[in-house]
Structures are given as C-alpha cells and as structure tokens.
Design brief:
Strand content of chain B: under 5%
Helix content of chain A: over 70%
Distance between the termini of chain A: 35 Å
Radius of gyration of chain A: 20 Å
Oligomer: heterodimer
Strand content of chain A: under 5%
Distance between the termini of chain B: 20 Å
Largest sheet of chain A: none
Radius of gyration of chain B: 16 Å
Number of domains of chain A: 1
Helix content of chain B: over 70%
Structural class of chain A: mainly alpha
Largest interface: A-B, 33 and 31 residues
Chain lengths: 259, 177
C-alpha cells in the first residue's frame, strides 16, 4: 500500500491553497485591480504628450509608444509578489500579536521548499492572467487613442511584456523572502521604476548597470531604454537568470530561518 | 499630554526598524550625493522620510494599538501626542538628512511629508499597504501628472499634509482599534 498521496494532487492542493489565500487578502485585490487599471489609465493620461513626442521625433521608435504604459502598470504585479510573503508575516489577530500566519502555514505544509515553489506558481498564474488582460486592453486602447501614429503591435512583443510582468512579480517575491519585509522591497522596486531610478543613475557611472533587472527587463519588449541597447532575447535570459538566482537565495534563506 | 507624548517618543526611539530607516536614509543621501542626480538628492531623502513616517505610525497595527489605548484611553489626546512625538523624535534626523543632501531649506517640506506619511499609515492601518500607496503617489502619479498635464494645479504641500493629518486624527478617534 502506498500511503503517500498522489504527487500531482499534492501540488494541485498546495497551489490551490496559496491561490485561495491570495484571493482572500484585501491588499492582494489592491494589487490585482491596480495592475489592471494603471496601464490603460496611463494611455489616456499620456495620450497628448505621447502624440506630441512622436510627431516631434522625441520618441525615435514609435512602436515603443504603445508598450511604454505597460512598464508602469506592473506595479500591481510587484504588490502581488510582495503580499504573497508579507501577508504571512503579519500577526493573526489582536489577541495574539506574537503569532504569525506563517506558523499556521508551516504547520500545514512543513516542507518549506515545496511551499516556496507553490507560492511562486500561484503568483505566476495570477500575474500572467493579469498581464495578458492588461496587455491586450492597453495595446487596443493605444491603437484607438494614437491611431496611425503607432504601428500595429506584434504579438511576440506583447507576450514578452507579459513575461516581464511575471518575472518582476517573482523578483518582488524573491526580494521579500530575502528581506522578510514588504516595505523594503516596495521601496526599492517602486523607486527604480519611477523617474528617479537609482539603477538608471548607476548606468551613468558604469555601463554594466544596464544589466540590473529593472533596466534589462524592459528591453524584452521596448527598443529604446536608456543608452545601452540589449537584444530582447538576451534581456530575457539575463532577467530570468536574476530571478532564478534571487529566488534560490530567498528560498534557501526561508528554509533556514525561524518563521 | 507630556507623559503621553513622552511614552510615544520612547516607543519611537527604541524601534530598530526606525533606527535602520534613518541610517539607510542618511547613507543613501551621502552615497548618491557625488552622482549628482537630476532633481537633487532630496528626492531620495524623501523616500526614506516617507517610509519613516509609515513605520512610526503603522508599527502598532495590527495588535499593539490595543495595549496603547489601554494605557492612554483618551483618543484625542493620543491623536495629538503621536504627531508631536514624531516631530520631536524624527525632526533632528530629518534635519541631518537635509543637511547631508546639501539643502537645509528642504527640512520643512520633508517634515510635512513625514506627517503626511504618518497620517496615511494611520488611516490605512497596514504598513505595507501604506508604503505602496505613498510611494506610488509620490514617485509615479504626481510626477506623471506634472509631466503630462502641466495645466492641472496641484494643491500645495501644506494643504495636503494638513488635510491628511486631520483625516487621520478624526478616523483614529472614531474607529474601532
């Protein structure tokens, strides 16, 4: 007799449990809605400026214009990636401020490696769905708003943009595992996707900084990022390498540390 | 009033996360100084100050606020004592940060940002959520509106800060802890 439950059932159960947890968190819903709304809203907000920038030749590659809002819309994916971990570190109630959700989670799933993988899978699924919906909506809106100014977006680049969202969500997840604090991750990542990006500042110091995740990532679907041009495939490989390395480190730390 | 504010000051100066945030803010300001970023180093200071405000007001949620209210049950008193203690404690740290950034005149603006961040954290009652809201607003939404819609006149910083601090005080007094 085999007492071990079916492996496939176990993984399905784990991922389903993580999905259920995420869908019942108000903060996760903020991330989901923000991710869906931010990029399309930006299309409308920046329509005038983008049109002017294209006609005046400030944007050298017009095909980028339709994709650019997706670079900021990924805020939602970042929040989701953070919440997957940070929600486990909040206390379970007023009566027991010392007790963490994580302790209950680990009592149900003591194998931490599997837990890290299940969380990553659940997060990737949600962000991928969110990314596909947002990418389609944003690109369709851009086509309507900007009209003939931008060429029709290629499906390959849209897929690359969705992949970038998933990778950034996983990066936020990995960093939160490492820092054990959602605040640190959010601060680092939001500053770096904003206009005052520290990584961008570093590219002025050394060209190697162009290979930092938040500079190399957008090159997967944008042609014009900063001063150093990196091919989309190379950018994808570098970005994936970053995510795998940080996830490995985060998973290893999570495995070793007290909950 | 004085004992209540004193208790809040003790809480703030003994929190490791707050000390760490101040130290990191100073370090980032010093390190980025030579890089001479467009727009000045103060904007990086501001990120640290916002996180400081969130941690100062948000560290009691969820949980510890119950104990705090047990010790000081009069909420209006606590609603005043908390911002007073925050300014007294973090004021010098913010001044040092502004001096390190080479713009001591920015201290006033940074203190307003600090109070605003504390107000948002008091309303949201969720440190991670408050950080997300504040940084998105400061680093992404406001610069975007400034760049894309220059005709829209945003209210001045003191008006914002006053409105949010007042909202925070009112919600703190009215809501269940």
């Amino acid at each position: 007799m085999n007492a071990e439950p079916n492996k496939r059932d176990m993984w399905m159960g784990l991922v389903r449990a993580e999905l259920l947890k995420l869908f019942s968190l108000p903060t996760a819903w903020v991330g989901m809605v923000l991710g869906l709304v931010a990029a399309p809203a930006l299309v409308f907000l920046s329509a005038g400026g983008t049109r002017k920038a294209i006609t005046e030749g400030f944007i050298r590659d017009a095909s980028d214009a339709a994709f650019q809002p997706l670079g900021i819309g990924l805020l939602g994916a970042l929040i989701l990636g953070v919440v997957v971990v940070s929600s486990e570190h909040t206390s379970t109630g007023e009566d027991s401020p010392g007790a963490r959700q994580l302790q209950a989670t680990l009592a149900a799933m003591p194998r931490r490696g599997r837990l890290v993988v299940a969380k990553a899978v659940a997060l990737s699924l949600i962000v991928a769905v969110q990314g596909v919906i947002t990418a389609v909506a944003t690109l369709a809106l851009s086509g309507m708003v900007l009209g003939d100014l931008v060429p029709a977006p290629s499906p390959g680049r849209a897929a690359a943009a969705v992949l970038y969202w998933v990778l950034m969500g996983l990066l936020a997840y990995a960093l939160t595992l490492i820092f054990k604090s959602g605040i640190v991750t959010l601060t680092v990542l939001i500053v770096n996707i904003s206009v005052v990006s520290v990584s961008y500042l570093l590219t002025k110091v050394t060209p190697l900084a162009a290979y930092l995740p938040d500079i190399v990532g957008p090159q997967m679907f944008l042609n014009q990022v900063g001063d150093v041009r990196i091919a989309p495939a190379t950018a994808g490989v570098v970005m994936t390498a970053w995510v795998i390395a940080l996830l490995t480190l985060g998973g290893w730390l999570f495995d070793r540390r007290d909950p | 009033m004085i004992p209540a504010a004193g208790a809040e000051v003790i809480k703030l100066v003994t929190l490791p996360s707050i000390r760490l945030t101040v130290a990191l803010t100073w370090a980032v300001t010093v390190l980025l100084g030579p890089a001479d970023p467009p727009g000045g180093v103060v904007q990086y200071c501001r990120v640290g100050v916002l996180v400081l405000g969130v941690l100062a007001a948000g560290h009691e949620y969820p949980g510890q606020i119950g104990a705090t209210l047990l010790a000081v049950p009069r909420r209006p008193l606590l609603a005043v004592a908390k911002p007073v203690a925050l300014v007294v404690t973090a004021g010098p740290a913010v001044l040092v940060a502004a001096l390190l950034a080479g713009e001591p005149g920015a201290t006033g603006g940074l203190l307003l940002d600090l109070l605003l961040a504390a107000g948002v954290a008091t309303v949201v009652r969720h440190p991670v959520g408050a950080t997300a809201v504040l940084l998105t607003a400061y680093q992404i939404v406001v610069p975007l509106i400034r760049a894309q819609l220059p005709a829209v006149a945003l209210p001045p910083a003191p008006a914002w800060a006053a409105a949010i601090v007042a909202t925070a005080a009112v919600t703190f007094c009215l809501r269940d802890a």
